[in-house]
Structures are given as structure tokens and as C-alpha cells.
Amino acid sequence: MLISARELSRRYGSAELKFFALEPTSLEIEAGAFVAVVGASGSGKSTLMHLLGLLDQPSSGRLFFDGRDTTALGPDAAAHLRNRRIGFIFQQYHLLPRMTALRNVELPMVYARESSRNRRRRAEAALEAVGLSARIDSLPTSLSGGEQQRVAIARALVMDPVLLLADEPTGALDSKSGEGILGLIEALHRQGRTVVMVTHDEKIAARAPRIIHMRDGSVTSDGAPVRQVPSSPEVVTS
Amino acid sequence: MRLVDMLRVAAQALVENPVRTLLTLLGVVIGVACVVSMAAIGAGAQQRITEEIGSFGANVLIVNPGATNKDGVSSASGARKSLTEADARAIGELDTIRYAAPSDFGTVQIVAKDRNWSTTVNGTTTKHFAIRQWTIASGRVFSGEEETSAAKVAVIGATAAERLFGTDDPIGQIVRILNTPFTVIGVMVPKGVSFDGQNQDDVVFVPISAAAVRLIGGANSVNHDAVAYILASARSSDWMRYAVDDVKALLRQRHDRETRDDDFTVTTASAALAAQESSTRTVALLLGSVALFSLIVGGISIMNIMLVCVTERTPEIGLRLAIGARPRDIERQFLIEAVALSAIGGVFGVVLGVIAAVLVTRVLGWPVFIAPEMIAVSVGLAAAFGVAFGWYPARRAAALQPVEALRSR
Known about the structure:
The complex is a heterodimer. Helices cover 32% and strands 26% of the residues of chain A. By secondary structure, chain A is of the alpha/beta class. Chain B folds into two domains: 184 residues, no CATH class; 182 residues, no CATH class.
């Protein structure tokens, strides 16, 4: 099991006035899975993703990554894990605006103390894999939204992580570019990477073989897409 | 993260916003320039005092008639000429003393051909020049025979020579001092301004015997033998303390002062300059601390800008943390940026400070001394300030939680 969460929760506020962004939740994600986490805003889906990506500390419970308990990891060990094993794709791309596409993709390798020759070679390969070989020296501002997200995906891929965490990867894109990005993510899954994708869009979530529905900080359903189970109460036709 | 990468990130951050970088640099540049120029001025003043002590003679002591109290009547210092030529001779015979020269002086009008000039006439012996390590530029000093016979010969200072003779050669010319004709036999090399602000070259020396008989002493003076002061030199500067004690003991004995207050004072050049030196040191310290404060203000401006940077770049910090930066990588990145700012500012500040110091010399004529170690200290100080004032913003940046940092956009 790649990820195993046991009674994982995230709580904000004081002791008297507690608010659970994530109620104690247990779930498991096997290596090679493609999981969509769906819910309205405030459902706790982003909180769950931040916890899975070691970007946030759980208030209680345990999280095992590749069999290793991450709850007690120090910030340096967590950084190392994020650097080597996890790739992040954000809704707003989070590219550094003054750096070229190539330099942005090189960034994770900078923290891995990779030599600059290796960095360049691997970043070029990653950009080629997302179909952006022609734009490696472009600044993010001169790229379209879809192209920027491709650069971000290249950056997530460049350290060859086992887990890809995508937070609304198509949220800021038109449907055509969004489709391209989704196709890319599906292709990455087919290559054997574990993908956890957070979205509010049922149609996008339906591309994943496993969907986790969330509402008010709790998992309401977990399984195959709802269209294959028409009797499910979670059918939303928005 | 490797150092070269951190330097590149810092360089990029500094280049990205040139106006901000320049304004931040300005604070440090001015601070360091102040420190460098103030230190140069302070060191210059100190050095000049040291030179003055040296030029006056570190082993020179001056015996002045002191305030006297005779039978209950107090007189001001110098009002009575309690010192005599015999005292000078006795001092000269002390083991710890090399030379002693009595001097009597007065300000009189001197006439040379068509010019006249009011100057100091100093009646003394050739030992006077030896004690002050003052050499003759042209001509000669008094001979022993001239000293004993009260010969009407004069050795004049450079300023007096210029005032009385212009560009003419004064040697062999006649000057009239109080209507007595004296032959100029020598001109001294210029000695410049003394530490108490007097032009030492505006003087005419005559044998003390001649001065006593013909000029200052005058026929109506009670005591022909009396002198205004006695100049003496110790065998070496190491002997100064003993020399002073010996002179005091000798004069107490000669003046029969065992049980009464001294009627003389013994001053040394270093003692006379000690007060000035301490006041110079105070001023230098004051200037230095003002400069240090301006450097602190420069440091605070770095801290201020770095805090703004951290806030501005919070999403970037979040992203860097997400893709694997350790908190210490973030901390170092900002620290290096702050140190780079202050070190660059330090280098430019040294350049500006040296220029300012040179300008001060040119325009105000103050002596400045730029010590190389002072420059190293200033740049080091600036870099240390970068670390000190960059530390807090860097800590703030490193303490950010990745998820919080990512969210703030």
C-alpha cells in the first residue's frame, strides 16, 4: 500500500471551538492507483490532499507513506520525501514568474543537489514528455494557461516521483486545454504512476477508476465511478 | 541546495527589482562610507598628534616659572622670573639630561632695510636647536664665542625671513632690533605650526647674553640672569620620568623650596598633548559612533526590505517548500540575499568613504589616515550587519508552513 491513512484529521480553532477541516478519516491508496477526490469547496478535499502531500501536519491520526509513518517526520525529512517521491500539480500552476520554463522545471533538482548538466538534461526530457520542447526558454507569462500547466506537470515529473498530487489541475483552464491536461495525467497514470486528483467537477472525477466523495470534512463514498452504479445516492447531475 | 545555486537565486532576486536593491544598498553604502571616512578623520587627527609629539621631541621638557607664594603674597605664573641661566646650566649637568637651554623672549618690532615686522625675539643658546631637533637651512648658528660675548648676531625662522627679506638671501643682512643692529647669520628650516597653533617659524633667535644685555632684560631689570623658560631634553624618551623628577628635585634645592610650594612647573610635550589627545579621541569616538548608528540604520533598512520580500514572496516560498526545499534552504536563501546586499553596500561604501576622506583632506585640509585594516573591518562589519539584520526575516521565511505559504496569493 503506497498510502495508508489511519484516523487522519485536521482541526482548526481553539480547544472549545473546534472545527474539523477533515474529520478522522481512514483510507488506503495502492501503488499505481488513479484516485479522484471530489467535493464542493470546504468539503475537506484540499485539506486531505495537503496532508497526503506532507504540506500540512495532521491534528491526529497517522499517515503511512510506502509503509513509513510520516507523522513524526521532521521538516527536513518531509522535504526530502516531497522532493523525491511526490510531485505536485496546482490549479494556479505556481510557476516562478522570472524563470524560464526550463529553470522552473529544474527547480526540484536544485534542492536535490543535482549537477547543472544533469538538471538541464532531465528538465529538457521532462518538457519534451509534456510536449513543450519548443518553449523551454519561454517565461511563464508568455505561455498560455495550458502550456503553463504543462510546465508545472513537467516540474512535478522531473524527479520521477511515485505519487502525483493534482489539485484542480484543470480548474483555471478552458475545456479544450483542460482536456489536454487530463489526457496527460491519464497517460502518466498508464505509465504506472499513482495519481490523486482533487476536483469539484464530477465529470472530470469520472475519468478516474476510483472516486472519493467528500462533504463537510468527511468521506461520504469511496469506490468506482457513480455512473457505473446508477442506484448510488451520490448521483449528482449538476 | 548548493551554494552556487543559492548565490544565483540571491543574485536573481536582487536584479529582479533594481530600484529596491539600489535603495537598500544606499543605506548600507552611506553607513559604511560614514564609518570609513570618520575612522580616517579620527585616525588622521591621532596620527597628527603623534607626529606633533615626535616633532616637538618626545624627550623634551619645558621648565616654566610657576605661580609663587612669597611671604603670603601670591603671584600669577610667570609674573616673577624665578628661573635663571644658572638653573639652566645646573639642569644641563644632570645625568638624566642631555641638553638644557635657557630662553628669554619678547615681541618686538624688527626693521630690515625698507621692511619691518613684529615678531618674537628669543634669546637662547645653540642647545635650543639641538633640543628641538631643529636644523639650520642656510648659514650657521651661534658660535660659543658669540654666545659668551653677547655678539649681535641673529638666526631667523623661515616666516620671519620671508617677512623681512622677501625672496632676498637674509644671510649677512642687518636687522635692527630695538634700534640695535644685528647681523643675520643663519636661517632655520621651516618647522610649521605647533600643537598649540603657533607658527614656530615666525621667530628671531639671538644669543641669550645679547638678549639680556641689549634687548629684553634691559638696564632697569632687577635680575639680568632671569630667564622666561628653560628647555631641556632627557637622554632618551625612556629617561623622561627620571629626568622630570631630577629637574624638580634640583630646582627645589636651588630655590630652597623644600618646605614650600614649587615656584616652577615642568611640562613635557606628551603631557601637554595628552589633554588634546584625549579630546581628539573623544571626538573620534563620537564621530565613529554616529557613523555606527548610520550603519545600524542601514542594517534596519535591509531588515525592513527583507521582511517585505518574505511577505511578497510567500507563495514562492510555499512552492519551493512543496517541491522539496528544506526550511534551512529557505533561511539560507534569504540570509545570503541580505548578506550580499550588505557586502555589496560595504564595498561601495568603502569606495565612497575613501573618496569622502580624500575630499576632506583637499577641501578642509584635515589630516586623514585610511588604515587598510579599517577597510577590512568596515566591510566585515557590513556583512555582519547583513547576517544580524537578515537573520530575523530569514527565520520568518523558514518558519512558514508550506500549505499556508501556498495559499497566500
